[in-house]
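Q: How would the structure tokens look for this protein?
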Amino acid sequence: MKPAFFIILLLLLMVPGCGETPSEFRPLPAALGDLRGVAMGFERLQPLDQGIYSAWLRLEKGDRVGIGTFNVNSNGQPVDGQGSVIDRFTASETLFSAISILIAIEPTGAIQDAPSEAVILQGPFIDGIATMAVPFPPGIGEATGSYRVFTPTDGPNTNEGSGVWAANANGEPTLALADINNLYMFEHFMVINGIPLTMGRFKTTDTRDLRNPWSGPLTDTAPAVPGEDFVANAPAGFTFPADLSGSRLLVTLEALYGDRVEPSQLIVLEGTLPAVVGGEIIQLTNQTANFPTGTAVIY
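A: Here is the predicted structure in token form.
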């Protein structure tokens, strides 16, 4: 981030009186003048190949104010369509009463009168400074899980290295995920030779996911858990039954509205398959510590 951003941040940090404890929201003093500018910086927020980010502030009276769109560069700085760094976003009205900020992904690049449902960061303002985080479900940082390699949808002892299901040998669920909120669904992906293939979306770990695009005809014999066999309907560039050796298995958070082909940057669990023949247990590692964060400063 540029030095100017940190100078602004330092000045605003000096505003509170000594010994004050920040509350969820504390407005800026009017003596600072007619503040309409916002500076932002991010950590681990990924550049978008499709769509664009939008920034929105909520005011104390309830109004939502959009302050612009942007992408990000490799340094976490907001940039415009030409790649130039945006040092200041300017609101159409004073921001004394700004309560919070959110960052949304606009999948089509078109901006409406409100942010899309694909909210990726948000946070409250305290003395003009907001620390933004992913509004993920409580407990997601403790999520754990594993998948077993086998293919229940094409008959016993057939292509057993070409499928994964979140169940143990007794068919019991092996994912421990947080209760989902009203912003996201879980989705799992198999990344084969660098290309992600969805295995479907799901809300709970003890029911099947909403799709079985690559499974065989015997879907009724599959356990009642999320999973997929890669044995049928191969997309262009793939050969099924697939050899999953060396593939990456991802469980992500995806915006509830808007189904993208690519996995989001919100990877909850991740694992890599070894050389597989069937029966292997794939332990997944929690990746939520790598979720993006950000800081916004009113000035």
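The chain has two domains: 3-9+23-133, 140-288.

The mean pLDDT is 88.

Upvote if useful.
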